[in-house]
């Protein structure tokens, strides 16, 4: 680890510090063992759990995800995947709080339709207001609209998570300038969520100044999920280091690498 990395402030979400800026999902793996191995390889400290699709104790006779990803080791981030109304999202977050003994950190997503899985921003705003008022720490999945991102921050969300591209598409960041606009104006962490396909996508998000990246499909559906998880970890670290270092200016014409002054011809 380089000195510059050691001196960097940690990622802070809802008052808690994290070393890793990579957040990972727990779905789409072939089994819990692969989930565990990929999560370990990613170095992630925050893992998302789809309450409607994962057993974390609500079904006592089924395998429990918490047996392989214990809350003592990871910060669980219950999410509202599969919710299409504000009411459903709020209800799901309250269920997660009951199952996890008062846990208040949640990832809010309210989807608009089943084909694109784009967020319904109107319902998202409504659900965010209700959850914040109910004492939740809300990390919110949203479109890459800078105005909506600002409104969600004003409501009190502890992190804003604009999509890079549609969920599970693997298309990478489609509108870098919108992401950059959100990053430059936000006073809370900004994490790219959805659309990452490979390591270079994650590095670009970090080079834009994002505080982190959340992904699931890019790792789980890779040919070798464990190896891809490690690649994503390295990409996040490299992208963050490049952002902190500051890239060279883009130039229209070539510039000699070696100085010409004082040389002999």
Helices and strands in order, then pairings?
Elements: H1 3-7, E1 11-13, E2 16-18, E3 22-25, H2 32-42, E4 46-50, E5 75-79, H3 86-99, E6 105-108, H4 121-133, E7 137-142, H5 146-155, E8 159-162, H6 176-185, E9 191-193, H7 199-207, E10 212-215, H8 217-220, H9 225-245
Parallel strand pairs: 3-4, 3-10, 4-5, 6-7, 7-8, 9-10
Antiparallel strand pairs: 1-2
Helix pairs in contact: 2-9, 3-4, 4-5, 5-6, 7-9
What features would you highlight for this structure?
265 residues; alpha/beta; five-stranded parallel beta sheet; 37% helix; 15% strand
Beta-strand content estimate? 15-25%
- Low-pLDDT parts are 1-5
Give the integer mean of the pLDDT values: 92
Please report the number of helical segments. Answer: 9
């Amino acid at each position: 680890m380089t000195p510059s990395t050691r001196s960097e402030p940690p990622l802070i979400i809802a008052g808690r510090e994290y070393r890793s800026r990579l957040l990972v999902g727990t779905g789409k793996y072939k089994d819990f063992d692969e989930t565990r191995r990929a999560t370990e390889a990613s170095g992630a400290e925050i893992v998302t759990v789809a309450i409607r699709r994962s057993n974390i104790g609500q079904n006592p006779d089924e395998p429990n995800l918490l047996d392989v990803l214990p809350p003592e080791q990871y910060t669980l981030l219950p999410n509202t995947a599969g919710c299409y109304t504000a009411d459903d999202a709020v209800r799901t977050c309250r269920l997660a709080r009951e199952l996890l003994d008062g846990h208040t950190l949640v990832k809010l997503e309210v989807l608009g339709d089943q084909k694109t899985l784009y967020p319904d921003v109107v319902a998202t705003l409504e659900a965010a207001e209700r959850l914040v008022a109910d004492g939740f720490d809300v990390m919110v999945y949203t479109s890459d609209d800078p105005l909506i991102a600002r409104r969600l921050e004003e409501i009190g969300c502890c992190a804003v998570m604009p999509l890079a591209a549609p969920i599970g598409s693997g298309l990478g960041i489609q509108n870098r300038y919108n992401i950059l606009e959100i990053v430059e104006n936000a006073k809370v962490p900004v994490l790219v969520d959805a659309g990452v396909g490979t390591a270079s996508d994650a590095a670009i998000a970090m080079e834009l100044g994002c505080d982190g990246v959340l992904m699931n499909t890019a790792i789980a559906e890779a040919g070798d999920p464990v190896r891809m998880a490690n690649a994503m970890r390295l990409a996040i670290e490299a992208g963050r280091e490049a952002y902190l270092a500051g890239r060279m200016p883009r130039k229209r014409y070539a510039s000699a690498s070696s100085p010409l002054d004082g040389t002999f011809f």
